[in-house]
Design a protein that fits this description.
By secondary structure, the chain is mainly alpha-helical. Helices cover 45% and strands 5% of the residues. It has six helices and four strands, in the order αααββαβααβ. The strands form two sheets. Strands 1-2 form a two-stranded antiparallel ribbon. A hairpin with a 6-residue loop joins β1 and β2. α5 packs antiparallel against α6. The longest helix is centred in the middle third of the chain and has 27 residues.
Amino acid sequence: MSLCRCVLACFLRYTSKFREQVKQDTKKNKAANRTMGPAKVEVPSPEKFLLKHSKEPQLPEKKPFTRKDDGRRKPQVPTKTDYPVMGIQTNTNFINSNAIENIMAVPKKPQHVYVDTRTGNKQPLETSGLVPKYVKKKDYGQTPEYLLQRNEEVKRAQQEYDDYVKERLRQGAMQQLSEEQRQTLLEGLKKNWGELHHQYQGLSVVTDTTPKKNRKERLESEMKQLERDIDHIERHKIIYIANN
């Protein structure tokens, strides 16, 4: 049984169709490198010897030189055999015409310049910024109209406010805060701000819990409100308080 299997395997063995070609190529390469000397190559013919300058680079063929502006060049100077057109005459008196043209012409105004170097270099004066154009205006030095209107509106608004305050004071609905009361109020606000600031300085550096975060935000908002109140009282010297 084993013998039959071996015979069957020999018959079913894969054989490449390039087998013989591979063998021939292998033998050929081995035969070329079999000896120790140089490979047998074709010897060059004595007639094909190396010529002088044969390996130098060859220059391209010469071409006629042409300029880029050959197509738009000016015409050539006329030769001695080319004669101008003769017989053309005019009755114009150029002396009188030139004199009349110059008499009727408007004289040119000299251009205003300034010299900026000792060698005499000139520059136009109009664009230099040295000409005081603004001071030559009719309304130079006068208050603009829009500022006068704005000042009138501010005065009118202040007068209306003063009249309103006087009327409320007359009715007894408002009273003016005295300077002593104002200073007392200011000192009290600053004292409260100092106490809140002392509490804020005693907070933990790490606010890792919600109560710590809420307390810090509450102290910051109260301190900001006190700062706004202190600034408001310090900027306004006259303060009115409603009685109701």
